[in-house]
Amino acid sequence: MPELPEVETVRARLEPLLAGRRLERVAILDPRLTRPEPPDAVSARLEGRRVDGVRRRGKYLVIDLEGDGHLLVHLRMTGSFRHTAGSAPGADGHARAVVELDDGGRLVYRDVRRFGTWSLLERGELDAYLGVRLGPEPLGPGFTAAALRSALAGRRAPVKAALLDQRTVAGIGNIYADEALWLARLHPLAAAGELGPGDVARLARAIRRVLRTGIDRHGATLRDYRAPDGASGSMQEEFRVYGRGGAPCPRCGTPIAKARVAGRGTWLCPTCQVAPGA
DNA sequence: AGGTGGACCCGAACGC
DNA sequence: TGCGTTCGGGTCCACC
C-alpha cells in the first residue's frame, strides 16, 4: 500500500506543513507505535523541538529535527497523517498519535492495522539504521542497470522476491513490483541471478518508470491511503496487471493471471511475461 | 548463507 | 441475513 510513490506524496505534502514548525505537544496513544521505546519517553524528547525538514528514504519518512534528531516513520500498510489548520477534532478510534504545532495546526497519525512505527533516532544513528535495511534509491543516481545487475547476481530467489527485498532497491512493494515486471516483460518467478543484461536493463527502466508515474499520479488509493489533506491518488487507474485478474493484458489481450509468488498475490500476463526456462 | 514462510494486525471480502 | 473464515501486505524473525 504505501510504497515509494505514496510515501513520496505524503512527504511532499507534509514538508510545507512541518518545516520550521515547533512540535508543541505530542500525544502517543498506542504504545505499539514506538515499541520498544516507551511512548512517554519518545513524546518527551519530541516536544519543544523544531522541524528542519521532511525527507524520504525508501518507504520511510524522515522528519529531521533540530539538534540532529530524526523521527523515522514507517506507514507499513495503513498508516496515514491528517493535518488540520485549527485544533479540529479529527482524532477517531484509529488515531495513534496527535501532534500540536506552534502555528495552531494539528497533525493526527492514524493506523487501522497498527503496523506502522515511529522511531526517534539521534545524531549519527540514522545512516546506520537505514544502511543495513535499504539498497539504493531507485530514482537516484545510484540506481543503474549495472547496480541492479550486481544486486541480483548469484541470487536464486524469484526476481519478484528480490524486488520486494528492500536491500536490492528501496521502496518497491507488491503493487509496483508486479507493474514493473509486466512492463519489463519478465516472469515474476524467473531466477533473479539468471536474468540477462538486457533483461536487467529493461527491469531497471521499468522500475523507474512505474515509480515516476506513481508519483505523478500522487500514488494509488485502493482502500486506506490518503495524503495529509485527505486527497486520493489516481495511480490505481494506471495499473496494467495489479488486481486485474481475468482482464485483458493491455499489450496482447491475454487474460491476466493471478499466482502466488514470495507469499504474495501476484498478477501477470502469461503470454508476454516469459516463464522461467521457457 | 541465502531463501522461505509465519507472526503481527484488523477491516473487507468471501462462502455457506 | 448472518455468521465464521480467509485474505492482504511490509518487515522481522525463526527455521530450513
Summed up, the domain count is 2
The CATH homologous superfamily of the largest domain is called: MutM-like, N-terminal
Q: Any idea what the shape is? A: globular
CATH class category of the largest domain: Alpha Beta
Mean pLDDT across all amino acids: 92
Oligomer: single chain
Note the total helix count.
7
What distance separates the N and C termini? 32 Å
Output the CATH topology of the largest domain.
Answer: N-terminal domain of MutM-like DNA repair proteins
Order of helices and strands: HEHEEEEEEEHHHHHEE
Helix content: 25-40%
Kindly estimate the percentage of residues that lie in beta strands according to DSSP.
15-25%
CATH architecture assignment name of the largest domain: Alpha-Beta Barrel
Read across the widest sheet, the strand sequence of neighbours is 1-6-7-5
Output the radius of gyration: 20 Å
- Largest sheet descriptor: 4 strands, antiparallel
Number of strands: 10
Structural class: alpha+beta
**Unreliable segments (pLDDT under 50, ≥5 consecutive)?**
none
Observed structural traits:
globular; Helicase, Ruva Protein, domain 3; about 280 residues; four-stranded antiparallel beta sheet; N-terminal domain of MutM-like DNA repair proteins; alpha+beta; DNA-binding
Set down the secondary structure blueprint.
Elements: H1 4-18, E1 23-28, H2 39-46, E2 51-57, E3 60-65, E4 69-74, E5 79-84, E6 95-101, E7 106-111, E8 117-121, H3 125-131, H4 145-152, H5 159-164, H6 174-183, H7 197-216, E9 257-261, E10 264-268
Helix pairs in contact: 1-7, 4-7, 6-7
The structure holds a DNA duplex (16 and 16 nucleotides).
